[in-house]
Amino acid sequence: MRYRPGLVGLVFVVLLVLLAFFAPLVAPYSPIDGQTKLRGDPPSRAFPLGNDAIGRDVLSRLIYGTRVALLVGLGATAIALTIGVLIGATAGYFRGGVDAILSRVVDALMAFPTLALLITLSAVLGPSLVTVVLVIGTTVWAAYARVVRADVLSLRERDYVLAARAAGAGDGRIILHHVLPNVLGPVVVLASLAIGNIIILESALSFLGLGVQPPAPSWGGMLSDGRAYIRQYPHIAIAPGIAISLTVLAFNLLGDGLRDALDPRQRE
Question: What value does the CA radius of gyration of the chain take, rounded to a whole number of Å?
Answer without folding.
Answer: 22
